[in-house]
Amino acid sequence: MTEAPNSAVLGGRCPASLAGLGLLSLTPLLSASDSLIKALGLTLATLALLTLFCALRALLQPWLTPRSRMPATILLAATLTSCAELGIQALSVELHQALGIYLALLAMHCLLIEHSDVLNDCGMLRAGARGFLLAGAASGLLLLFGLLRELLGAGTLFGQLDWLFGPAAADWSIRLFAQSAGWGLAGLAPAAFMLLGLCLAAKNALRRPDARQPESSESPDTRLLSDSPPPQETPLP
């Protein structure tokens, strides 16, 4: 059987399993995606953090013992998360204040990756590619939720982009309707999980086979008789 083109990167793991792992680690961050700019800030931090963590974790693998593996992972995750927080703060103080504690939750991504053994028996470059793939799976949904929640809650698109791109981006915001006419719940944390449930329900509905199968004209008794073995002939004495 021929291997998939990306099997060298995935190390035998299917992309769906890695994407599912990325979406699972995304769950604590969904409530912070009430605007596109906050989702974009989390996306930048997640891409940099997971790529560097997976690459450096694979680099340290030969020097780690079973006893020192978890402490080293926690120390590496905490160090990189702190660096990501400082990077976001240097990039935009307003964005850092808006994200708050959710930046620290990025360390949970690293611990979940370590627990899932995604980085076993792979080199530094392959591990970095896996981390980037996991971050991409999480970041895509983050950006989608940020766009939808900002649109439904505030009635705007691309609001507060001046936090990242300077005062010139203050006029890039597009208002489609008044904020009073929006769905106020969209800006709260429960709305993120409601949208996630709707997305999962839509995915399951699209992948579900057609329930209207043609029924057989045979009765259950007839099918039972047809499936039974033929009677054996008794030899004559």
Summary keywords:
disordered N terminus; two-stranded antiparallel ribbon; 2 strands; mainly alpha
Describe the structure.
There is one protein chain. The chain is an all-alpha fold and 237 residues long. The chain has one domain. It contains 10 helices and 2 strands, in the order αααααααβαβαα. It has a two-stranded antiparallel sheet with strand order 1-2. Helix 2 crosses helix 7 and helix 4 crosses helix 5. The protein is globular. The protein starts with 6 loop residues before the first helix and ends in a 10-residue tail after the last helix.
Secondary structure: elements and pairs:
Layout: H1 7-10, H2 15-26, H3 36-60, H4 69-91, H5 93-99, H6 106-116, H7 124-154, E1 156-157, H8 162-165, E2 174-175, H9 189-207, H10 220-227
Helix pairs in contact: 2-6, 2-7, 3-4, 3-6, 3-7, 4-5, 4-6
Order of neighbouring strands in the sheet with most strands: 1-2
Shape: globular
Sketch the major β-sheet.
Answer: 2 strands, antiparallel
Number of strands: 2
Percent helix range: 55-70%
Cα(first) to Cα(last) distance is 56 Å
Order of helices and strands: HHHHHHHEHEHH
> What is the CA-based Rg, rounded?
26 Å
Strand content: under 5%
How much is the average pLDDT? 75
User: SS-based structural class?
Assistant: mainly alpha
Q: Give the uncertain stretches in residue-range form.
A: 1-17, 211-217
Number of helices: 10
Count up the domains: 1
